[in-house]
């Protein structure tokens, strides 16, 4: 008798999916699964389709073939997906606190006309503690460091309890302190059962937080367990026009800045 519990159902399943902005496919033939409590890294050069895939999962880029299911449904259930884009247009001079920015993530359930309840405020406090920013709740958002702002936007994305989290280049521009804090945050979120799909050009960080890797260059190059996929041959096939170096711990793509 097999006493091992069955694998959990995928939080995200993509099969043969292609996405287009209307002038031919921007990303073709993608197939992978992401399960609760795990993270998949999207890795590829500029223009490889990483952001396109994230937006395709959200339904913001048309899918022209294949299937995408979130929690077993063809359209993501309301509130089930959190998303942190590469850039966020929050005026640094606008007088809004970190706590208020995170509360924006409750508006779907809160509504625009109802005042936050104790439950909403507790959820915001918990989200800020999760990302390590609880003591800065009353600080003006625009006066926080870039890394703290990114962690605040992550808190906003998770404050309503999504089951799938999409992160687009969250490590860009972070100093070591904020990189370490973000890694710890992602680990805590995964431990709570959240599934994470993260676009990154930082392969060392992909090794730190992701169990599996999806290599992209306009189409799928490889997908599977991190240490099996991040080989010199696979990375060279992904980053075709730049030099690649690799040692036993990490892969380095000199001069590459991912988007």
Automatic annotation (TrEMBL):
<dbReference type="InterPro" id="IPR050153">
    <property type="entry name" value="Metal_Ion_Import_ABC"/>
</dbReference>
<keyword id="KW-0547">Nucleotide-binding</keyword>
<protein>
    <submittedName>
        <fullName>Manganese/iron transport system ATP-binding protein</fullName>
    </submittedName>
</protein>
<comment type="similarity">
    <text>Belongs to the ABC transporter superfamily.</text>
</comment>
<keyword id="KW-0813">Transport</keyword>
<dbReference type="InterPro" id="IPR003593">
    <property type="entry name" value="AAA+_ATPase"/>
</dbReference>
<dbReference type="GO" id="GO:0005524">
    <property type="term" value="F:ATP binding"/>
</dbReference>
<dbReference type="InterPro" id="IPR003439">
    <property type="entry name" value="ABC_transporter-like_ATP-bd"/>
</dbReference>
<dbReference type="InterPro" id="IPR027417">
    <property type="entry name" value="P-loop_NTPase"/>
</dbReference>
<feature type="domain" description="ABC transporter">
    <location>
        <begin position="12"/>
        <end position="242"/>
    </location>
</feature>
<keyword id="KW-0067">ATP-binding</keyword>
<dbReference type="GO" id="GO:0016887">
    <property type="term" value="F:ATP hydrolysis activity"/>
</dbReference>
<dbReference type="Pfam" id="PF00005">
    <property type="entry name" value="ABC_tran"/>
</dbReference>
């Amino acid at each position: 008798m097999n006493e091992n519990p069955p694998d959990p159902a995928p939080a995200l399943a993509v099969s043969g999916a292609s996405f287009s902005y209307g002038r031919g496919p921007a990303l073709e033939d993608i197939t992978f699964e992401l399960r609760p409590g795990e993270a998949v890294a999207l890795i590829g050069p500029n223009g490889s389709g990483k952001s396109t895939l994230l937006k395709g999962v959200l339904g913001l880029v048309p899918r022209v073939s294949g299937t995408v299911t979130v929690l077993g449904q063809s359209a993501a259930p309301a509130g089930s997906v959190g998303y942190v884009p590469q850039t966020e247009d929050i005026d640094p001079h606008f007088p809004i606190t970190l706590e208020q920015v995170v509360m924006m993530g409750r508006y779907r359930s809160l509504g625009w006309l109802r005042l936050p309840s104790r439950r909403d405020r507790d959820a915001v406090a918990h989200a800020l503690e999760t990302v390590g920013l609880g003591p800065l709740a009353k600080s003006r958002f625009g006066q926080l460091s870039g890394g703290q702002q990114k962690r605040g936007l992550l808190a906003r994305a998770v404050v309503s309890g999504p089951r799938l989290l999409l992160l687009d280049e969250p490590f860009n521009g972070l100093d070591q302190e904020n990189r370490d804090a973000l890694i710890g945050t992602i680990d805590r979120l995964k431990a709570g059962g959240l599934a994470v799909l993260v676009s990154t050009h930082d392969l060392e960080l992909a090794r730190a937080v992701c169990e599996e890797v999806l290599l992209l260059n306009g189409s799928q190059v490889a997908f599977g367990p991190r240490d099996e996929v991040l080989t010199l041959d696979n990375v060279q096939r992904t980053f075709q026009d730049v030099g690649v170096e690799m040692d036993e711990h990490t892969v380095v793509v000199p001069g590459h800045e991912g988007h």
